[in-house]
Amino acid sequence: MDTNNSVDTGRKKMDQLSPYLENDMGQKATTDNGLKISNTDDSLKLGERGPTLLEDFHFRQKITHFDHERIPERVVHARGFGAHGFFQLYESMSEYTKAKFLQDPNLTTPVFVRFSTVVGSRGSADTVRDVRGFATKFYTEDGNLDIVGNNIPVFFIQDAIKFPDIVHAIKPEPHNEVPQATSAHDTFWDFVVNTPETAHMVMWLMSDRAIPRSFRMMEGFGVNTFRLINAQGQARFVKFHWKPLLGVHSLLRDEAQRLSGKDPDFHRRDLWDAIEQGNYPEYELGVQIIEESQEFSFDFDILDPTKVWPEELIPVKIIGKMTLNKNVDNFFAETEQVAFCPANIVPGIDFSNDPLLQGRLFSYEDTQLSRLGGPNFRQIPINRPVVPVHNDQRDGGHQMRIHQGNVSYFPNMLAQNSPSPADEAEGGFVHYAERVDAHKVRARSQSFRDHFRQATLFWNSMSPTEKAHIVDAFHYEAGSVKNKEVKQAVADMFAHVAPELGEQIAVGIGVNRPPSVPANDMKASSAALSQENTIKSARTRKVAVLVENGFCPLAVNTMLNELKAAGAVAETVSSSLAPITGKDGTMLEPNKSFVTTSSLVYDAVFIPGGANHADAISQNIDVRLFINEALRHMKTVGAADEAAELLLMTDAAGLISNFTGSEGTPWVNQGVVLIQGADNLQPYCAEFINQLSGHRHWGRLIDYPITAA
Ligand code: HDE
């Protein structure tokens, strides 16, 4: 926990949780009844070789508890990872809302965040192509507020009643429960091609947004439209955004798929390690606000969850920052048992009639009843508000409160009407009195009918690299579909987004060119949608320094020091974990070996010089694979002195074919950074770090996935 902040830093929630922390260190083992146990290795038997006796209460309790250790996983967002932190406002938002936590910039509010994938089971891999959940619980002075968002700002469907359909379609197919944690199969694409409102979100799902580099490097979006209400009762429409201070960055498809095997925990490990190292993830909270009078001023319906509010039209006002500064003490107790619900709001925030949101308001409470086993899940420590709870709700499974007295109803005289409702001035929640005058119909508004224009806006906003990645994703996803008609329909449907997209999909998945369709009139683009325009930084990036016997200690030390100063994280990697000797006799104990790690988990690779080192490295097939893979995944690769020439051996892409030596100054081409004959490596390290902060070097193989039609 960060104690340097002058303000609360989320302490209130930690103080509340601390009485529940258990530490068994140095204690004697007992049963759940507190009876000390003398032996927990042998069951009670009739003779040493005889049958076990039913009377063995310790055996029965131990096994029974174990038998019931699991609870149902979330029906969606089953795999997730959480952390504690705090939120602090930059400036008072009192003009827009009376929410207490948005009034005073000196106040900090404890938060708990859970990131997740949507489709896979609890044990599935982190780096699959999927939407990421980004759910935040604010423990405010008005009670808990949940912003249950995703890292994609739009949703597949417009009405909550279709949620079971989309989820059934995207989950593993029911006859054989294959494939796990992916949309690359027939039922998902069958649903998509029969549901044009999915077009916009599918574009995001096929984009790099769906394979984030880190939870720390993705945006969050509340998706649904809410309201802000100020103390005068004025309402405005609002959408919530989280903007990561490290920028928005992604993996490559191939990298993400390989990582699923090499490190299925890649994202949770990354978040955990960053927090343990003090590299606290930070996200700014932004709001887009639309006046009620402007409700009908746009070429999209502001209640339609398949639409963004383009940031160039409605700017995101940055209002505060969230810092995640503490890992959980226990995954199950906190991350697994946390229960989010978009209906958890506070005075100053209210709902809109967004038909997806309206359904969500019901679903989350409902699902917790089976997942967490009854109506008292709000009493689980992680779910408790930091303010007192008083009401006449009683009993139910696992009731933790011991309510005193004989009154559990309202109104009453016996307890002087306690607990009594609070009026608005006392902080009582009063729903926004929206006037609605309409027929009761099972129908959808005409204003929700445009399904392609914003999908085209997204496509128009992508850089050539991002477009190439989208085409590549379609080739993999729709190419994995078995049914030829569905495949054809995918190419045909996305020709409505952009004819060239439909054609490029068709080429890659072996179906006919889509028939020409009427041109979509969306010509605009939005710079905010492209990751090319994001923040770039070397901070917290991970670098592998490859070392064998004979390495140059000066080069290694300079690089490690400079990386540390830039806020990057370095690990030495060698053939084994045994200590190695540098060219001047310096000993070094490598952090990782080629068996225990892989190029996949790093953002860059550096190979120091040393004559014998170069020999040792040149004979090592693992080194070649490591470098080749890093080059293929567009990562920064650096080498010094003798090692620079070795790169020629792995230079399949011809990146250094024109390297003729560097005479003491750094030589750079597409993220390959070489140096020879320098007395001082600091300028070289600065260039290496500069290249590292570029994230990936897309120019390296820019033309590879797009095939000419
Ligand atoms: Fe969810 N969603 N959802 N969802 N959702 C759940 O609630 C649901 C939607 C989101 O880390 C479930 O507690 C419906 C949009 C996140 O614990 C369930 C609809 C967005 C999480 C549920 C949606 C989300 C969930 C399953 C369509 C982004 C994980 C377990 C109307 C704004 C929260 C649970 C966590 C979880 C229902 C659509 C985000 C079944 C009916 C849109 C981040 O209640």
UniProtKB/TrEMBL annotation:
The record's section on InterPro entries has: Catalase, Catalase_AS, Catalase_clade2, Catalase_clade2_helical, Catalase_core, Catalase_haem_BS, Catalase_immune_responsive, Catalase_large_C
The alphabetized list of GO BP terms reads:
hydrogen peroxide catabolic process; response to oxidative stress
Q: Which Pfam families match?
A: Catalase (PF00199), Catalase-rel (PF06628), DJ-1_PfpI (PF01965)
Residues annotated for heme binding in this entry = R74, R114, F163, R360, Y364, R371
**What domain of life does the UniProt record list for this protein's source?**
Bacteria
What SMART domains does UniProt report for this protein, alphabetically? Answer: Catalase
- The answer to whether UniProt assigns keyword Metal-binding to this entry is yes
**Chain residue ranges for the region called Disordered:** 1-42
One GO cellular component assignment for this chain's record is: cytosol
Q: Where is the active site?
A: H77, N150
Every Catalase core domain range: 30-418
Which coenzyme or cofactor does it need?
heme
List GO molecular-function terms, semicolon-separated: catalase activity; heme binding; metal ion binding
- Give EC number(s), comma-separated: 1.11.1.6
What's the catalysed reaction?
2 H2O2 = O2 + 2 H2O
- According to the UniProt entry, which residue ranges have a biased composition of type Polar residues? 28-41
Enzyme class name:
oxidoreductase
Q: Which family does it belong to?
A: Belongs to the catalase family. HPII subfamily.
Q: What function does the entry list?
A: Decomposes hydrogen peroxide into water and oxygen; serves to protect cells from the toxic effects of hydrogen peroxide.
Protein name, please?
Catalase
Which organism does this sequence originate in?
Desulfosporosinus youngiae DSM 17734
